[in-house]
Design a protein that fits this description.
By secondary structure, the chain is of the alpha+beta class. It folds into two domains: 78 residues, no CATH class; 112 residues. It has nine helices and five strands. Strands 4-3-2-1-5 form a five-stranded antiparallel β-sheet. Strand 1 and strand 2 form a beta hairpin. The protein is globular. The N terminus is likely disordered.
């Protein structure tokens, strides 16, 4: 008597699709790759400067940011979450709204704590604007060289944590005059608006790499 051997038919294993994110343009991909180290950065200023430098040599507009936000939001890796949270506090206007919607509320302790001008417009044709800020108790400053001959265009910019050293060095060139936060950032807004309209204008690489942090502070000063 023969025994029939029954073989079980194995069902194919269903593999869930992994979200791969929305497609990125080469420029968007380059930007995201440059921000890979964000999860290792604990200082919020370092995060800002990293993101600002990553986009310094790229042509960006709302479409650029819409694509980046959609990508990192659809693929929630540790790196992408860190980038999304950075964009939620660093961007302005509609791109910021998109990032906040995707990341959720992101708290920030950034505040303006003072601003001064060093006016060399009569003898050298430029004005230096020093703005002091703080994350909680840790202060830093952004210093801008504004070309008065060229209608107030920002020609140079840098960030320093040695605020008093920067103030002392500027005071050796000309008297430092205190200026209100709104007035100081109105000067900056006018300068960066001109740069936005004329991206072909020659400015230092430091101006472009600090553009995002500067625009965030302009928005902060005006509430």
């Amino acid at each position: 008597m023969s025994r029939k051997i029954q073989y079980r038919t194995r069902r194919p294993i269903a593999v869930a699709d992994r979200p791969q994110g929305t497609p990125l343009s080469p420029a968007q991909r380059l930007f995201v790759d440059r921000c890979r180290e964000l999860p290792q950065l604990a200082d919020p200023l370092d995060v800002e400067l990293t993101v600002g430098a990553a986009v310094a040599d790229l042509d960006v507009d709302e479409e650029f940011w819409a694509g980046v936000v959609a990508h990192v939001a659809s693929w929630p890796s540790r790196r992408n979450v860190a980038l999304l949270r950075a964009l939620a506090v660093l961007l302005t206007g509609r791109p910021r709204d998109w990032a906040v919607e995707a990341a959720g509320p992101v708290g920030s302790t950034l505040r303006v704590t003072g601003a001064w001008t060093c006016d060399r417009s009569l003898d050298a044709g430029y004005l230096v604007l020093l703005c002091r800020y703080a994350f909680s108790a840790r202060e830093h400053a952004m210093v801008f060289l504004i070309d008065e001959v060229e209608g107030g265009l920002v020609r140079g910019a840098f960030v320093t944590r040695q605020v008093e050293v920067a103030r002392e060095r500027l005071a050796r060139q000309a008297p430092l005059d205190a200026i209100g936060a709104e007035a100081a950032h109105w000067l900056l807004a006018k300068s960066y608006d001109r740069l936005d309209r004329r991206p072909d204008l020659r400015v230092g690489d430091d101006v472009r790499s600090t553009r995002l942090p500067a625009k965030r502070r302009i928005a902060l000063a005006f509430g």
